[in-house]
Amino acid sequence: MSKNAGSCQSCLHSWFDYETPKTLVIPSLGIGCVFRFAQLLVVLYVVGYVCVLQKGYQETDSIISTVTTKVKGYAFTNTSDMDPRFWDVADYVMPPQGDNSFFVLTNMVVTPGQIQSRCPELPNLSKLCVDDCDCMEGYSDPRGSGIQTGLCENYSTTAKTCEVLSWCPLEIDTRLPKHALLAAAENFTVLIKNSITYPKFNVHRRNILPHINSSYLKRCEFNRVTDPDCPIFRLKDIISEAGEDFQDMAVKGGVLGILIDWSCDLDWWAGKCYPKYSFRRLDNKHPVNNVAPGYNFRFAKYYKTPDGEETRTLIKAFGIRFDVIVFGTAGKFGIVPTIVNLGAAFSFLGLVPAVIDWLMLTCSSRRHLYSRQKVTYLIEDGEAESTPMGTSYGTQ
Ligand SMILES: *[C@@H]1O[C@H](CO)[C@@H](O)[C@H](O)[C@H]1NC(C)=O
């Protein structure tokens, strides 16, 4: 019986051989232990990772959420740049609606009494000129302050710049106060109201938990240890939990994330569905590559003088934008994910014999005996013969 002769008859012959597994019992304590140990590892994986950690038996749903915010606090400023002034929420919070993203003004450059007229460009924004030929009428540089009129004018006694048509006097935003104007904003508080829904499980929750009554809400303030459920946060606490210093951040502004994690386990034996707050600075504050730091924008307030001329006060506002970010998934026992995940996990049990076979036939000291017994080629006259190849296993 030459099976590897290569003639066409023999390859056809082996193609139509039927192979059927036969049980070979190996009474070896070592191999038996390895086999049971490998099975135990698979079972531990299924129980520990798939069931306990991944909760593979649960159906999941993602969150739908809405957030409203309300900032409170007052400040009084008395600095050399500005008249003494009282500030309330309508002055320093933008936009006023109380969205999930709100801005608290902390520092500013104010340019009052601007009117539409002509004035020489700032020397740091454009090249100096010598005479009118250096200026081009109608040209406007997007980084400049206005549209050039074609004249070269004295900016100061030493510098001449091109005249522009603009809101004059021009804003000089290099004069940013070194200490935040509204330093008192660190003591402002914000009330965050957050309602969420998991539509698949028909679960509705809000971050003002059922045990919070209105008198507690009037006086409480969030503290991770003493008042972890209070939805009123002091801005300074939010920022220090994010690892930043309020007064530092208030000078040039920044973006801060208030993260609310609503991960819920809705099974009756877990029954956990509470918000978890965390805070994190979201804009880049890389200590080395710190070009263009902070957050600012400009807005203006418009007036008419008694003689009918329009004037405006331009404000370059620096401050902290708070973004409330709500996330989470809910899980609840479901029969379909249970079957699918357990089936997939237990299929690893089917790999165990293949691994043990390989170990047995390559590493065991009695591998020659085992491989002779492993494949039996049945000869037509009814007598069984061990592998014709002698030691190789699995040859056809
Ligand atoms: C904030 O309030 C604390 C006491 O509640 C006070 O010591 C601190 O000076 C206040 N901060 C500012 C900038 O006013």
From TrEMBL:
Name of the featured protein: P2X purinoceptor
UniProt GO MF annotations: ATP binding; extracellularly ATP-gated monoatomic cation channel activity; purinergic nucleotide receptor activity
Entry binding sites for ATP: K70, V71, K72, T189, N296, F297, R298, K316
Glycosylation sites: N187
Keyword Transmembrane: yes
Membrane-topology annotation of the record: Multi-pass membrane protein
InterPro entries in alphabetical order: P2X2_purnocptor, P2X_extracellular_dom_sf, P2X_purnocptor, P2X_receptor, P2X_RECEPTOR_CS
Catalytic activity: Ca(2+)(in) = Ca(2+)(out)
Disulfide bonds: C119-C168, C129-C152, C135-C162, C220-C230, C264-C273
UniProt KW Glycoprotein keyword: yes
Organism: Parambassis ranga
Compartments reported by the entry: Cell membrane; Membrane
Oligomer status and interactors: Homotrimer and heterotrimer; functional P2XRs are organized as homomeric and heteromeric trimers. Homotrimer. Forms heterotrimer with P2RX1. Forms heterotrimer with P2RX6. Forms heterotrimer with P2RX3.
UniProt keyword terms in alphabetical order: ATP-binding, Cell membrane, Disulfide bond, Glycoprotein, Ion channel, Ion transport, Ligand-gated ion channel, Membrane, Nucleotide-binding, Receptor, Transmembrane, Transmembrane helix, Transport
Segments crossing the lipid bilayer: 24-52, 346-364
Sequence similarity: Belongs to the P2X receptor family.
CC terms in the record's Gene Ontology section: plasma membrane; postsynapse
The gene coding this protein: LOC114441466
Function description: Receptor for ATP that acts as a ligand-gated ion channel.
Main location, first listed in the record: membrane
PROSITE patterns to which the protein is assigned, alphabetical: P2X_RECEPTOR, PROKAR_LIPOPROTEIN
Example GO BP: response to ATP
